[in-house]
Amino acid sequence: ELKVEQNPLFLSMQEGKNYTIYCNYSTTSDRLYWYRQDPGKSLESLFVLLSNGAVKQEGRLMASLDTKARLSTLHITAAVHDLSATYFCAVEVDSNYQLIWGAGTKLIIKP
Amino acid sequence: DTEVTQTPKHLVMGMTNKKSLKCEQHMGHRAMYWYKQKAKKPPELMFVYSYEKLSINESVPSRFSPECPNSSLLNLHLHALQPEDSALYLCASSLGPGTRSPRTFGSGTRLTVV
Fold first, then answer.
1. Which residues in chain A have their CB less than 8 angstroms from residue B43's CB?
2. How many Å apart are CA A68 and CA B14, to the nearest integer?
3. What does the pLDDT look like over B46-101, one tens digit per residue?
4. How many angstroms separate the CA of residue A62 from the nearest CA in chain B?
5. Which residues of A fall within a CB distance of 8 Å from B55?
6. In percent, how much of chain A has pLDDT > 70?
7. Rounded Cα gap, residues B55 and A96, in angstroms
8. Which of A53, B30, B37, B113 could anchor a disulfide with B81, C-beta 3.0 to 4.6 Å?
9. Torsion of CA A93, A97, B103, B22, to 10 degrees
10. Position A96 pLDDT exceeds 70
11. Is A35 in contact with A87 (CB distance < 8 Å)?
């Protein structure tokens, strides 16, 4: 059974600091997605990682994928309050439409 | 148009009511999904339609009945729900099978069953 583990599950940090969220998964896949969810809102697609070594950056967020280590990271650089949200990683297995989700990381960035 | 539109945004229904949730997309996506999300949890897949045919039903109780009238529309018919069915119901779409594309989510329907 494919499992996806995110850590940490909760992160409180100061503005201006850097931090990394980790997403480990238990079986072979080269399709990994990162989503953001604000409280009471829907899910916003952040990054699509489709190959080993893929790196994507958008503003202060950078995501990477190491398929050999079965690990993706979401790095936050010089955090700002607006990045406070819950971040989910999700791994796609084959083409059967199933996304296996991590539990989510609740990120609070204090001014 | 890069949106998935869901209506209504909020719904309160009694356990004997029948209601429907609606979802629409005009991105040419051929896969459409219903997810259920409880507070502080990741979304759970309920149903998948691929090219307007039901591809996946994740052992969802029959009180939830999906319908895909055409490639742009997806409905979820609700009947005799239980209070534990209260949740955020999310519709999503993606390009289709084998396309390795992300799901685009609608804003959701917040459902409360009383």
1. 43, 101
2. 50
3. 999 999 999 888 889 999 999 999 999 999 999 999 999 999 999 999 998 777 88
4. 17
5. 97
6. 97
7. 9
8. B113
9. -160
10. no
11. yes
